[in-house]
Write a structure and sequence with these properties.
The protein is of the alpha+beta class. It folds into 2 domains: about 10-130, OB fold (Dihydrolipoamide Acetyltransferase, E2P); about 175-380, Chloramphenicol acetyltransferase-like domain (Chloramphenicol Acetyltransferase). It has 8 helices and 17 strands. Helix 2 packs parallel to helix 3, helix 6 packs across helix 7 and helix 6 packs across helix 8. The protein is elongated, with a radius of gyration of 25 Å.
Length: about 375
């Protein structure tokens, strides 16, 4: 089992593409490994023959575990003897593969609705609904009447290996990382006006409030390098680049791809880069490098009307900023008269091994200052 990321300790062997006795060449896919973030095709490093399979499909094993043995071979393989599914891979999302395994459907029999015919979870569900219902022979005894439903009980099902991995990692993060929280409300009245103006400007990428927040976080990290550090194996590591994670909801759960060198981008560049990350995350096309690194991630649930979000830190990082809905509020102006403002609820979750309350509060105040004066975020940082 390979190590596909800095924080990966174990992986799910989702499915095998070969069987004992198969001869493979360099680049042939041997199996699919999944973490809680991504599914990766593991390829053969050279020519050889599969001797034995040591780990069954669906098993979660530690990094470094021997999952199969093979015999090196220098004999060229002119006509591969791999199974058809290995030589012509069916494109499918990890969630679709898991659902197909659970209901016993072969992916090759399902039509995909995604790009290049990629099979999605809804395609598997549609195939299940269209499958013929087995008939009962006339000689079979009549079926027993269904048992009455149990009152007060909801549906129960075993958690999938991927769901177990996510649950374990989040539990470990909450228990192992000493969280503390700093909360603020940012005045985004001017920001919302600027956003609306930019979104009708010709040649400028469409921007959202999330893009402004990422830009503000990146500029604040650049001005306060003492915040741009993480805890790793009893050492405090200061990172060179300003990389910011973005929480993205996908079919297979929440992913947090990382935007590299966000402090060097203007708002337009951040919007375009985020658009690419979100598209690839939802299409299942992220690679391990997209999910590694960074000090801080941004998670926005404002579109659902939540007043505040107190998120759990992603393992390997030191903070995460929860972004909630914009709400109107009356605040006194310079003369003490009530003024209607638009305020954004922010909660910064921090790792107390790396940050303290004073430094976290200063950082969040710096972020809110950028959001109150958003024009500077439209320009490329020098």
């Amino acid at each position: 089992m390979p190590k596909l990321g800095l924080t990966m300790t174990e992986g799910l062997l989702a499915c095998w593409r070969v069987k004992p006795g198969d001869r493979v060449q360099k680049g042939d896919v041997l199996f699919v490994a999944e973490t809680d973030k991504i599914a990766t095709d593991i390829e053969a490093p050279g020519a050889g023959e599969i001797a034995s399979i040591e780990v069954a499909e669906g098993s979660t094993v530690p990094v470094g575990t021997v999952v199969a043995t093979w015999i090196d071979s220098n004999i060229p393989v002119s006509s591969p003897t791999l199974p058809a599914i290995a030589t012509s891979r069916v494109l499918a999302t990890p969630l679709a593969r898991r659902l197909a395994r659970q209901v016993g459907l072969k992916l090759a029999t399902i039509s995909g609705s995604g790009p290049r015919g990629r099979i999605k979870a809804r395609d598997v569900e549609a195939a299940c609904a269209a499958a013929p219902v087995p008939t009962v022979p006339s000689s079979a005894p009549p079926a027993a009447p269904p048992a009455p439903p149990s009152l007060g009980l909801s549906e129960r099902r075993p958690a999938s290996p991927m769901e177990k991995t996510v649950a374990r990692r989040m539990t470990e993060a909450k228990h192992a990382i000493p969280h503390f929280y700093v909360q603020a409300d940012a005045d985004v009245t001017r920001l919302l006006v600027l956003r609306d103006e930019l979104n009708v400007a010709e040649g400028f990428a469409r921007v959202s409030l999330t893009h402004f927040v990422i830009a503000a976080v990146a500029r604040a990290l650049a001005q306060m390098p003492e915040i741009n550090r993480i805890w790793d194996a009893d050492e405090i590591v200061t990172l060179d680049g300003i990389d910011v994670g973005l929480a993205v909801a996908t079919e297979r759960g929440l992913l947090a791809p990382v935007l590299r060198h966000a402090d060097r981008m203007g708002l337009d560049g951040i919007a375009r880069a985020c658009g690419d990350l979100v598209a690839r995350a939802r299409a299942g096309r992220l690679v391990a490098e997209d999910l590694a690194g960074g000090t801080l991630s941004v998670s926005n649930v404002g579109m659902f009307g939540a007043s505040h979000l107190t998120p759990i830190i992603n393992p390997g990082q030191a903070a995460i900023l929860g972004v909630a809905a914009v709400r109107p509020a009356f605040r006194p102006d310079a003369e003490g008269r009530p003024c209607l403002c638009q305020e954004l609820g922010l909660v910064l979750s921090c790792d107390h091994r790396v940050l303290d309350g004073v430094s976290a509060a200063r950082f969040l105040d710096r972020v809110t200052q950028f959001l109150r004066q958003p024009l500077t975020l439209t320009r490329v940082h020098g």
